[in-house]
Amino acid sequence: MLINDKKSLRILYSSIRKGIDAKTKEESDRRIITFLVNTDEFVNCEKILVYVSFGSEIKTDGLIDYSLKLNKEVCVPVWNNGQMEFFKINNRNELSKNINGILIPDNRKCEKSDNSENCLCIVPGLSFDKFGNRLGFGGGYYDRFLFANPGITSIALCYDRCFCGKVLPHEAHDIQIKTTITETSLIRSENINGL
To answer: What are phi and psi of 17, to 5 degrees?
Structure first.
């Protein structure tokens, strides 16, 4: 049976991701981050916008620390009134848990990012397809942010087992991700208009 509604797919891919055993997840996360830091996009960027991993998301702690070690500007998201903004951090000690248990920077103490050029945005999600369509958690934060900042390069992180072989359901306002990295592949998105 083909599942083509986002709600059912979120349940499916969330279950698949949560079902990855700890040892496999740790190795997969390491491979994905290693793949990422060897891309031209990462090597050449001066600033990285990166989520702080939560729950079954691909772990980004090492990526944040490595980026800071390379003297890249590291910015982490904060959600305010339906919008997502990024704030610069100097180390992970500047993060504290919000009411949902997600680590975020204190936007009263940290400097807001100006989202300048030569910037790489690491995009989370439950699933992606070869056209760059993204299945997130339904808030639309990254879609709105990337639409408002078209000059920013985006790379998605996804487990092989969560990469969709079909076309994910999408809408006109959804922003396609240019590159997706799994533990075994770097996938450059195809032109969806060629369907």
So the answer is: -65, -45
Residue 81 near residue 9 (C-beta atoms within 8 A): no
The yes-or-no verdict on residue 129 having pLDDT over 90 is yes
Give the chain's length: 195
As a whole number of angstroms, the distance between CA 150 and CA 167 comes to 23
Using a CB cutoff of 8 Å and minimum separation of 24, what contacts does 103-112 make? 103/52, 103/54, 103/76, 104/52, 104/76, 104/77, 104/78, 105/76, 105/78, 107/78, 107/80, 111/87, 112/85, 112/86, 112/87, 112/88
Provide the token pair at 174.
């959804």
| pLDDT over threshold 70, residue 2 | no
Specify the 3-state DSSP secondary structure of 94. Answer: helix
* Largest distance between two CA atoms of the chain: 50
pTM: predicted TM-score of the whole model, two decimal places: 0.90
Token pair 């009411």 in the structure block, residue:
99
